[in-house]
From TrEMBL:
Name of the protein in question: 6-phosphogluconolactonase
Gene3D superfamilies, sorted: 3.40.50.1360
EC number(s) per entry: 3.1.1.31
Keywords: Hydrolase
Length: 232
């Protein structure tokens, strides 16, 4: 599957361009189907994009926002992706959007994954927009190198929904949408910044072992063209 690289001179220009594109995609989905869905990633990279997108003038009341992945921590935990999105995206005009979290206060992460799958069952078939990030180890979503459920997570023939992931580089236990849930998004983007991330991406492109660098699964097997947004 094709991957298209969009290069920008700086992070602010990238954030504005990506926000404009995503807002246009969401608005088109609302016009065509009456609602729109977007799954976003955590980390520090998307904050500026979130801030810009939150001010875009679309019918946010018809947009459902969820997370590509999440740590198994409460929403008030500083490492929570839910907290990140609530702080930087679900405000201004975007405060009207519906949010579906992945974390639920359960006795086990497996129970939380079942609930998250049930809560998200009505959206994302396919998602209108999916925004991925990438770590310096080549992980994306919570597809971590040598993760305990990595094979299941990357199986495009597997079920849509949320599953669990444990890995040495992941820190907390994770909840993540499966690759099958994300790979056919109508707009599938990878948002990365800095030369270091560009170097990681180039390394991923040069190899084939998905267990070593799971971003390779997205580069090689995504069902939608991957739009790569990068700034130094």
């Amino acid at each position: 599957m094709a991957a298209n690289l969009h290069e920008f001179p700086d992070a602010a220009t990238l954030a504005a361009a990506l926000a404009d594109e995503v807002a246009a995609r969401l608005a088109a989905a609302i016009r065509e189907r009456g609602s729109a869905s977007i799954a976003v990633s955590g980390g520090s990279t998307p904050k500026r994009f979130f801030e810009t997108l939150s001010t875009c003038d679309i019918d946010w009341g018809k947009v459902t926002v969820t997370l590509v992945d999440e740590r198994f921590v409460p929403a008030d935990n500083p490492r929570s992706n839910h907290l990140l999105v609530a702080t930087h995206l679900l405000k201004d005009r975007a405060a009207a959007a519906k949010f579906i979290p992945l974390y639920y206060d359960c006795s086990s992460i497996d129970e939380a994954a079942v609930i998250a799958t049930e809560k998200a069952a009505g959206i994302g078939k396919p998602f209108d927009v999916v925004i991925l990030g990438m770590g310096t180890d080549g992980h994306t979503a919570s597809f971590f190198p040598h993760g305990n459920n990595l094979g299941q997570a990357l199986n495009l023939s597997g079920p849509r929904g949320v599953l669990t992931m444990e890995a040495e580089g992941a820190g907390e236990e994770r909840l993540t949408f499966s690759f099958a849930s994300l790979s056919d998004a109508r707009f599938l983007a990878l948002h990365i910044e800095g030369q270091g991330k560009k170097d990681v991406l180039d390394k991923a492109k040069a190899g084939s072992d998905e267990t070593e660098m799971p971003i390779r699964a997205v580069l090689n097997r995504a069902q939608s063209p991957l739009e790569i947004y990068w700034a130094p």
